[in-house]
Amino acid sequence: MHHNDHHKDNSNADKHELNQSDYLSGARIIPRRVHANMTVAELIEQQFQAYNSARLNEAARLYAEEMLAPEKDVTIGLTMAGALTPAGLGGCVITLMENGFVDFIISTGANLYHDMHHALAMSLHRGDFRLDDTKLQEEGVIRIYDILFEDKVLLDTDAFVRECLKSLPNRPISTSELHYHLGNQLLKAGVNPEYSVLAQAARWNVPIYTSSPGDSSIGMNVARNALDGSLLTLDPLADVNETTAIVHSATRNGVIILGGGSPKNFYLQTQPQLWEVLGIQKGGHDYFVQITADAPHWGGLSGATPSEAVSWGKIKPDQLNSAVVIYGDSTIVLPLITAYAVTKAQPRPRKELFVRREELLQELKEAYFAGKGVRP
């Protein structure tokens, strides 16, 4: 059965009364046997039938069958919050970028900072979350829940970042320019650049943005640079315009949201930026997949539902059957969805949006000024 078939009649619920056969039109649940050496795709399709496993099934199929369908021409954003790269999730992100399954990224700065450790051959180790943190501090060991590494890893990564900053222009830049530069330096100087999201994003021209650039060790080192007299600063407003230009130019837009947080909103706000602020009608995002551990009833953005996003014009009202929220852990869900996508969908040509930023900004300017009735 096609992913959205069981939604079709229900989307017309306001037009006709649902009857028993409408309610029972979903695929039959069957307690199938689990077999040795099943593929990830077989496991998801055969065993993930209800609750959050069914949401994962729906999200994986929505991604592989609709979002990655060549004729849909969906520009796909990925947002990353939570300490994902220290846990090795960069491998999934690199796979998605290589296949053309992710076109641009919005991440917390911390994910990009810790991503660099892998490229620079600095070791992060599996450990135990029940250790004595006072003892760890005395031994010079840093803990991210059950991930352990030497404190020298931070100091050496800081030194690498500061060295990279020396060859950047002495003026405000977008975070995409900063991350492209860091990635290129990792490609040149890194021991294992194939392990780094930043390095491979630079290689494939995938732009990466950080919505709160001061809120990580990368931003902290840029701040130290400013104390040394540098005029290099990170311009979040340039990022707002660049991400909005990417969304404005797209045939269709879709997003995979890992966690939530500030990167989630920074992606979703591109639609209100178009209609509310710039006066350009776009209509909302087309596809929305979120993996979150936050519930909506706390009132926070990370738990906010796709239907709430409709009220802001962030998601198209008629696209709620193309929105899935999985309540789960990104470290479990992302590898499964990645494996499903690379099994079921053909690689797409990479959009290489980083090198198209000026062109897309010009298109956005022209649409904005046309709406005001003036020429740019």
Describe the protein's topology:
Layout: H1 5-8, H2 20-23, H3 40-47, H4 51-67, E1 74-80, H5 90-98, E2 104-107, H6 109-119, E3 125-126, H7 133-138, E4 141-144, E5 147-150, H8 152-165, E6 172-173, H9 175-189, H10 197-203, E7 208-209, H11 217-227, E8 233-234, H12 236-249, E9 252-258, H13 261-268, H14 270-277, E10 287-292, H15 306-311, E11 323-327, H16 330-344, H17 357-372
Parallel strand pairs: 1-2, 1-9, 2-7, 6-8, 9-10, 10-11
Antiparallel strand pairs: 3-5, 4-5
Helix pairs in contact: 4-16, 5-16, 8-11, 9-10, 12-14, 12-17
Describe the 3D structure:
- This protein has 376 residues and is of the alpha/beta class.
- Strands 7-2-1-9-10-11 form a 6-stranded parallel beta sheet, sandwiched between helices. Strands 3-5-4 form a 3-stranded antiparallel beta sheet. Strands 6-8 form a two-stranded parallel ribbon.
- The chain has helices spanning 5-8, 20-23, 40-47, 51-67, 90-98, 109-119, 133-138, 152-165, 175-189, 197-203, 217-227, 236-249, 261-268, 270-277, 306-311, 330-344, 357-372; strands spanning 74-80, 104-107, 125-126, 141-144, 147-150, 172-173, 208-209, 233-234, 252-258, 287-292, 323-327.
- It has a single domain (31-372), classed as Deoxyhypusine synthase (Deoxyhypusine Synthase), CATH 3.40.910.10.
- Helix 9 (175-189) crosses helix 10.
- 41% of the residues are buried.
